[in-house]
Amino acid sequence: NPNDPSFIPRAFSFSHINLTHRNWTALGLPNLSCYPIIDPRGLVTPFYNGWSLDFWVVSKNSRMMIPSKLKDVEQYLEMKNTLRLKTSCRLAGIHVNQSAEVVITDKKPALIVSVHVQVSSGRWLVTALRPYNPEGVQFIEQISLEPSRQFLVVDGRERIYFEETPEKFLFSTYTDGDVVYKLEEEEEADSVRCSVGMATAAAVYNLEGVNEKQLTIRIPLEIDKPSHARIGLNDFDNWPLALKDTAQLSVPDRNIQYLYDAAVRTLILLSAGDIVPGPYTYRRFWFRDACFMLNALMAVGLLDRCRHILANFPKRQKRSGFFHSQDGEWDSNGQVLWIFDRYESLSGQVLDPTVRGAIYRAVKWIRNKRLPKNNTPHAGLLPPGFSAEHLGPNDYYYWDNFWSLAGLKAAGKMVTRGGSESKLAEIEELAKDFKKSIFDSIEKIPEGSSRGGIPASPYRRMDAGAIGSMVVDYPLQLTPPGEQRVIETLSFLIENCFHSGAFFQDMIHSGINVYLTLALAQSLLRIGDRRYRLLLDAVAELATSAGQWPEAIHPLTGGGCMGDGQHGWAAAEWVMMIRNLFVREEGHRLILCSGILPEWLQTPSPVSFGPTPTPFGKISIKIIRIGRELEVSLNADHKHIGAEGEISPPGYQRLQVNDWQGIYHLTSLKDLPNTDEKAHS
Is 476 within 8 Å of 438 (Cβ atoms)? Predict the structure, then answer.
């Protein structure tokens, strides 16, 4: 029961000590795949699965300000031409401002941490080296001070450089206790070795007689080989260049603007080498997360970046045709085919021959993997698998089958587009037969189990796992808007599986899930149900002050309770949600402005988004309120000639679009005679 004070998240890892505040923010450069992370109290973890640095202040009355012990700490992600995280702490006359960013020095990346202390009566500023990180213990066996006294060496590998030499260095072991208890002592050693891996150290600066102190630390970072595969060292540090061609959002809501800008940067950051769903816990590859993240990267215009990543997908394909990232997850082939088609559709380009060769092998795998047709509810479906882990234990998940069906449809479009129509009839027949098997299976589910909706599998009742079946609506659009079973599934989930206004996944995640909440918001937007706004607001409220979301959120603490503390799929769905408020694809049509929030139109400032790629070309939208009318300006490339669409902002008349370079004036429904606003919505 997520409302009970005794609620404990289950997650799925025995090694994760932290199940209540799994939150952090990664720093880095657009094409550098190493990700220092900072936790919500300013704890700095420079290396993957490594040790951390903490910063303490001791006053003359021996009061200690240790950020992790404070209830409130301010944190903000600065994004103008850089990616810099600022953390601010206060306690009884002590004020500490910390900033951290990754820079290039001497053609090598380094994490720069600056600490500025203001104190009325200070004694020491302490840089503490900790054998921990935001997930738990990380062993330190040896720490040594170099003769210059300018840097520490940790376990003979990583170095910590101090711009100003500390007053003293202190060391301790597990046997002697944490170094925090030795701050009063004099320096006695220049190194320490701990047999159980719990060495600690402190670099101590004198604050007596001063009211403020500035400290700068530099930590050289390791360069992962995938970083150089596409781009040279000289381009690592260029955030403005990486963002130059991305879709820009301009809205008066500062929080939504901030979250969009942060999400775009998260997607760029996590796609430097292999695209990964997180900088820390999930710093490894999944086709599933990659496809959602690539879809968002394409939507903001980073098609070249996506093409490079997609070119590497066939290297992960087995000889059987299976796109393998994890065992027992049968959704990947459909996802890869779907994202291949999305790229070709949005870019107007055909993928490389090696990539297209993988299409036929993937289709063959789906055909061969399907189960025989018989009288069972799972006849003609894919075999049971673990699938997306938030659905539950192994089962015949509709999630896998809907993805595979969408993949077959995508393969048919790519075959047609590439001029290989000899394969088209075979693929279309396979897709037709597969669709029949899926929907026949759904029809066989007893009413008492389905309640008119689509459970997670033929053998499940309606529960939180049914969220997986909603993929048939968003993003796959395998059913038309408002299909009855989809509506019943959506209604069940909202009525039975929500907590604090967002989707609570009690399967494994045992937390509030951001990307699944936003997927439901997309389904609401698709049918014109304005409750999408409630879900949008709930997700915005769940973000950290640094503009990030963990994979799942503890219902009581509001902190992360599972997975990565900065989740790429969550960032991707936020980007797609904002994009679809302005530009939404519905079959062969574009629906414009259907999700614009009314308060955005209450100011004289323009509201805008774009350019964003669509199957018809790129388009930008700008909206200005003039009196009681809206002026909507469209700026699209020539490919939009002949495309169908409509402009339909809530509360205003609908207009069909026939000129994609035009300016349209829309009248408020209140000013139109005999108009029912409810009918419009």
Answer: no
